[in-house]
Each structure stands twice: as structure tokens, then as C-alpha cells.
Automatic annotation (TrEMBL):
Active site positions, chain numbering: C227
Main location: cytoplasm
GO cellular component, as recorded: cytoplasm
Subcellular location: Cytoplasm
Alphabetical list of Pfam families matching this protein: PAPS_reduct
Upper lineage: Bacteria, Bacillati, Bacillota, Bacilli, Bacillales
Known EC number: 1.8.4.10
Protein family (similarity comment): Belongs to the PAPS reductase family. CysH subfamily.
Free-text function comment from the UniProt entry: Catalyzes the formation of sulfite from adenosine 5'-phosphosulfate (APS) using thioredoxin as an electron donor.
Name by which UniProt lists this protein: Adenosine 5'-phosphosulfate reductase
Species, as recorded: Paenibacillus nanensis
Length: 231
């Protein structure tokens, strides 16, 4: 099956799955693609999907990109999730170079001089490497998070990384996410309670003020709105 045929088949499945629940989509994903993984950033959307996966397919791989620059609360959320779900298969994925090596090669605080390069080194390249081992992946992106995500399908072919991509909660609102967290007593990052609706690396994430866009705290002051993982 060539790329065109794959995309056509997946587009057809996307229409069929559009009204399915996230749980139904996850079940379809893990049954159809046993060699599948979930990319977890430990944000609100992703902890919801961790909870769902543990109920549906607890042995499915879950990886996270450890950029070395996360908030301490993010690492603590990881540890609390591991305690909540014993045996959870978290896979740590790190960049090829350390922060010190990055500073030596590209200068101090690369995230200020060239945020795209920093994201490429610490996120995109490691992601490309880990995804090459799988035939499908699951993400927690939602359509109303950003204009770049507005057309996300529940299932689509990820041309950039060359595999099938599932977005089970693409149609959910932030309220849907938080209702699930409350109803299921899901562990979440405490930064969300302190005006951090979207949490990335510590250097490039700030609190969001009342009236601002939920993603205004990411790469504040720059035109950049995505790290390059979901374009």
C-alpha cells in the first residue's frame, strides 16, 4: 500500500471514528496497531489519556521527552503517576546532547536566541528517533488549543514522522478534560492550578494572565506557537 492509499484509508476511518468516544478510539488504536506508543507530556490532557490507557491497555508503551528543562512539578507529576499506576511503562527519551554540550556548541540560553533550534534538538530529533520504532502513536492534542491544531482528526496519517497518529480527545474542550480529571480523581500537574494551562519547558513557559489565550504562556514574546511536534 503506497502513501496515497494509506492516507485515503485513514481518512475514511477518521470519518467513521469522529463520533466515537476517546475510550473507543484508544481501544481501536491498540487493537489495530499493537506496535503503538503514547507521547506523554504530563499536562492535563495527557494524564487523562494515561488513566484511560491504564484501564484499556496497561501494557501499551508510554514515553516522555525529557528535555532536561522541565519544571520540577512536571517530574513530580511523572513520579506520582508511576505511584498511582504501579508498573506503568514510562520510557524516558532524552536528546543526543546535554544542556552543557548544547551551550558549548550553540551558545548559552539557546532558547532565547533560537527557540526553534532548541526545540529541534531537545524535542523533535528525539521524537523522530523514538517514533521510528512504532507504527502508530497517540497524542493528547485538542482542536481548540491552537489554530495549528484546529483541523486535527481523531485518526490521521502523520506525514512528518511517517506513521499513523491518533488524537482521541481532539474534539474535547478544556472543560471536558477537567471534568474527567475530577470525576476519576486523576493525578495532574499542580502548575495548572497556578495559571499554567499549557506547560512546556521551564525556560519557555510563563503564567497566563486573565483574558489571554491559553497558549500565550508558551514562547511568550515570540511568533512561535508550536515546538514542531504537531505541525
Amino acid at each position: 500500500m503506497n502513501l496515497f492509499e494509506k492516507e485515503a484509508l485513514i481518512a475514511k476511518q477518521a470519518v467513521e471514528l469522529e463520533n466515537a468516544t476517546p475510550e473507543e478510539i484508544i481501544r481501536f488504536a491498540v487493537e489495530t496497531f499493537p506496535n503503538i506508543t503514547f507521547a506523554c507530556s504530563f499536562g492535563a490532557e495527557d494524564v487523562v489519556l494515561v488513566d484511560m490507557l491504564q484501564k484499556i491497555s496497561p501494557k501499551t508503551d508510554i514515553f516522555y521527552l525529557d528535555t532536561d528543562f522541565h519544571f520540577k512539578e512536571t517530574y513530580e507529576t511523572r513520579d506520582r503517576l508511576a505511584e498511582r499506576y504501579p508498573g506503568i511503562p514510562f520510557v524516558e527519551v532524552k536528546p543526543e546532547i546535554t544542556p552543557e554540550e548544547q551551550a558549548a556548541q550553540y551558545g548559552e540560553e539557546l532558547w532565547k536566541s533560537d527557540a526553534n533550534k532548541c526545540c529541534d534538538i531537545r524535542k523533535v530529533q528525539p521524537l523522530t528517533k523514538i517514533l521510528s520504532k512504532y507504527e502508530a502513536w497517540i497524542t493528547g492534542i485538542r482542536r481548540d488549543q491552537a489554530p495549528t491544531r484546529a483541523n486535527a482528526k481523531k485518526i490521521e496519517y502523520d506525514v512528518k514522522f511517517g506513521l499513523v497518529k491518533f488524537n482521541p480527545i481532539a474534539s474535547w474542550t478544556s472543560e471536558d478534560v477537567w471534568n474527567y480529571i475530577r470525576e476519576n480523581n486523576v493525578v495532574y500537574n499542580p502548575l495548572h492550578d497556578n495559571n499554567y494551562p499549557s506547560i512546556g519547558c521551564e525556560h519557555c513557559t510563563r503564567q497566563v494572565m486573565p483574558g489571554e489565550d491559553p497558549r500565550a504562556g508558551r514562547w511568550s514574546g515570540q511568533e512561535k506557537t508550536e515546538c514542531g511536534l504537531h505541525k
